[in-house]
Amino acid sequence: MTNEEIKLAVLDIIATIAPDEDLSHIEPELKLREQIELDSMDFLDIVMELRKRYGVQVPETEYMQLATLQGCVDYLGPKLHDKQLKTSPARA
After folding, report:
1. CA-CA distance, 65 to 83, in Å (whole number)?
2. pLDDT tens, position by position, for the chain (92 residues)?
3. Within a 10 A sphere around the Cβ of 68, how many other Cβ atoms?
4. Which residues, 6+ apart, have CB-to-CB distance to 26 below 8 Å?
5. 40-54 and 69-80 are packed helices; what angle lies between their axes, rounded to 10 degrees?
6. From CA 84, how far away is CA 61, in angstroms rounded?
7. Alpha-carbon 92 to chain mean position
């Protein structure tokens, strides 16, 4: 996956977890929880969806690396380089 596809994948997962949020103005360098309403359970759902869709295991000690959209891209890039983008059925 390219960096842009990783962004799309993360945003698609967030849209699945928090469907009422407007994700069109997400700033890559700002913490996601400061830009949209995500609680700790939503964040865990995002981590679980990454595992379900892409087989990526994120240890709890590394959760902070996923705090921003850019952090997600940086962290997931090496783990997803050989994967294909998968979107939720409602957004495909």
Report:
1. 20
2. 999 999 999 999 999 999 999 999 999 999 999 999 999 999 999 999 999 999 999 999 999 999 999 999 999 999 998 988 887 765 54
3. 21
4. 11, 32, 35, 36, 69
5. 20
6. 26
7. 16
Whether residue 7 contacts residue 69, with contact meaning beta carbons closer than 8 Å, is answered with yes
Packed helices 3-17 and 69-80: angle between N→C axes, nearest 10 degrees: 120
The span from the CA of 67 to the CA of 89, in Å, is 25
- DSSP 8-state class, residue 62: G
Tell me phi and psi for residue 65, to 5 degrees.
-70, -15
pTM: 0.89
